[in-house]
Amino acid sequence: MESMRKKIYFLLLFFSIFSSLSADEYLAEVKVGYFRPSNNLFRDLFPDGWPNYQIELSYSPFARTCKDWWRGFFGWASVNYLHAAGNTIARIDDCSICIIPAAIGLKYLYPIPCDAQIYAGMGLKYFWLRVDNKDPEIHFKDRARGLGGVFSIGALFHPIRNVFVDLFVDYSLKHFDKRHFSQKENNVIPSDVNISGLTLGIGAGLWF
Amino acid sequence: MNNYNFFFFFCLLMPFRAHAELNWTSFQKTPAESPVSSMQLAVNQNSKALLAWFQPLDQQICTAYYDCVMKKWDATLKIPATTSSITLLAVSYMENQKGGLLWLDVQNNRLYVSHLNQNTWSKPLPLQIPFPVGNVQSIFDSEGNLTVVWTSWNGLEQVIQGVFYSETSHNWTSITDLSPIGFKCETPKITLNSKGKGAIVWQAIITSGLGSATQSFVQMATFDLHAFQWFEPIPFGYDWVNTVLTCPDIVMDDSENIAVAWEAIPPNQEEKRIQYVLFSAKQNEWSYIYEMELGTSRPQWDRNAQNIELLWVNRDGLNMAQCDAENHLMGQVHNLAPSCHKVSHLKIAYDTLGKCNLLWLCEGTLHAIHYNHEWIAPLYFNQKPLQAFDFSQDALGNVVLAVLQEGQMLYAVGDYLLPPTVFEGEKIEVRYPSRKATYANLSWNFANSPNSVAYILRRDGALLTILPAHACQYTDYRCPNGHTKYELSVLNVDKIESFSIKRSL
Fold first, then answer.
1. What CA–CA distance (Å, rounded) separates B188 from B201?
2. How many Å lie between the alpha carbon of B6 and the closest alpha carbon of chain A?
3. For B84, which DSSP code?
4. Chain-wide mean pLDDT for chain B?
5. Can you list the positions of beta strands (E) in chain A?
6. Spatial distance between the Cα atoms of B64 and B52, rounded to a whole number of angstroms
7. Domains in chain B, number
8. Which range of residues forms the domain containing residue B446?
9. Which of B433, B434, B480 lies closest to A187 in CB terms?
10. Which of B151-155, B171-175, B208-212 is least confident?
11. CB contact under 8 A, A45 and B432
């Protein structure tokens, strides 16, 4: 109990010092979202929604120096992790998909009353895709990677100074052509993979 | 699949195995629509049967195919007849689905032959034969040529006449008197080997001028069905006056070895005995006339690809012995049915594997015995007294049997090795996130064949897998795209594979 109390004191001290140093030019954020693939096949094979874990860093070079409207521009970079396991149609197989996108982009934060901001952004997203089928009869691992895009909107709320809560929606775009996947069995034909989808989520972060 | 391969080799290496018998189905109705007076049956090597019958009420000769694999009858083909006195004499049915049918119009003394091609019977070709005709014997060769012999009255005596039918020219040859002048001839029997060479044997009697003493002979004539040529008759001379030689039978094997047997009834002796004589083609020499013990009767020769066999009845019942005609030897006697003395309508059929089925009527009850490396105890069919029966078997020994019972024609199938009757399947497209695959789900009903140990599944002619006998479904995960043909067959303990049932997906 004593140690817990010490930790809380330490955090309060950290935030008070940190906030006094803050120039509001960095945002560090952890997000978790509900990813709904736009591909019907994926929704048949896997659950309708998958968890989408995300770490995002944003930086505005103008926040410290400018007072103009364009101090709301931020550059951002993020890494996501999506994973789903499911069954193939008409058979009970262990099939899993893992998507790791890394993105960079721009977003603009616009202040609104109640000490909150809304934002909209877009960026380039580089996807790593891995599909594993563990069926003993049709066992394959497909790997692909490629560049896509992302659009996002959201709102930041500040329950306490330098801490924000982010409610966001983003839409990722990526379509892998079947040529990414080699054909080994004559009856197992590669097909296109569309991993585009919408993510609704919530995040929490520090603004310093 | 590796496991199944292991299973397959295990099956092949099994050292102690019971030999498979036949599973007979119960008797069922044939497609005959009204009472039947005459019937003939032939099964080709591909397990398809052609049943021909005559319906006197509507004066129609009908034929229908039976597929032993699918266990179903096809549509009945009908040939109109002009009278109600038709006797079907012979039917043939070949692997290429061609066949032939011979019948006798007793009222008009005409022989008719018709040929089956592409599920259509040709227009019957008649042949007017002298009146009265009796004891008609006929045999088709594998090309559809035909030999027919009969007894006829030439105004002075009863003679043996014969004629050929050529399938190539679709015509009858001229009728030939086969028996020499001066004999009363009866009971001709005919044999034909697979090379188109054959022989006829008959009983010939000379009655002395006073009419009291008779001299009896057995005479034989050979023929070449491919050349449509008869050869001079050979008499088996006998100087036993008043000894009656009757019921002769003959067989010729592919090497042209010949065996002839008959019943000899000496004067003043009630009991008859069988006598037989053998011809070695290699030595070009007839044997002495051998005599069997007293009380032997009803000689009947049969042959398969390897052996000649003699069947006869004695006090012990029905017997069989293998005969080596080339070396003039008779082998060990097998008593097949101890209780059967009044044997009639005996017929034996061999398959290409050396198995055989022997069926006979004994006081109206049909008996059957199966040979597969050893004679298996005979069984009888619990039916009312039968008027007639006919049976034939395919290359594997599956038998189709037709019986006539009070004008009704019934059939039964002796299942030696038949594939399942139902073989179904569907192709399923399975989607993966990055791929799509085609599977084939196959299912079938269990085969009823005795001692079946495995199923063999082929895809587009190539072995796919071997499954144990309790399996009734399989998923082919490597099903190619496009049209795929699956074949399912059964393997039995004798390592014999059945015909296959096919399914295209």
1. 5
2. 19
3. S
4. 85
5. 26-37, 50-59, 73-86, 95-112, 116-134, 139-160, 163-173, 175-176, 188-190, 193-194, 197-207
6. 7
7. 2
8. 2-9+420-504
9. B480
10. B208-212
11. yes
- Looking at the structure, do residues B459 and B410 belong to the same domain, yes or no? no
Residue B11 in this model has a pLDDT that exceeds 60: no
Residues B392 and B489 both lie in one domain: no
Instruction: Find residues 462-481 of chain B whose CB sits inside 8 Å of chain A.
Output: 475, 477-481
Q: DSSP of B12-24, one letter per residue?
A: HH-S--PPP--EE
Of B428, B477, B481, the CB nearest to A138: B477
CA distance B474 to chain A (A): 13
Assess if residue B168 is contained within a domain: no
pLDDT, mean of residues B349-353? 81
**DSSP β-bridge partners for residue B328:** none
Whole-number percent of chain B with pLDDT over 70: 93
More confidently predicted of A5 and B108: B108
Last residue of a domain, one of B396, B416, B436: B416
ipTM higher than threshold 0.90: no
Q: How far apart are CA B341 and CA B317, in angstroms?
A: 5
Chain Cα centroid distance, residue B272: 29
Cα–Cα separations (whole angstroms), residue B413 to B11, B26, B393: 27, 8, 10
Give the DSSP H/E element, type plus range, for residue A19.
helix A2-21
> What's the CA gap between B197 and B199, in Å, rounded?
7
**For residue B327, is it left (φ>0), alpha (ψ between -120 and 50) or beta?**
alpha
In a domain, B390, yes or no: yes
B23 pLDDT more than 60: yes
Structure confidence at residue B213 (pLDDT): 62
Q: Compare B238 and A43 and report the one with higher pLDDT.
A: A43
| Phi-psi map region of B284: left, alpha, beta (phi>0 left; psi -120 to 50 alpha) | left
Architecture label for domain A24-207: Beta Barrel (2.40)
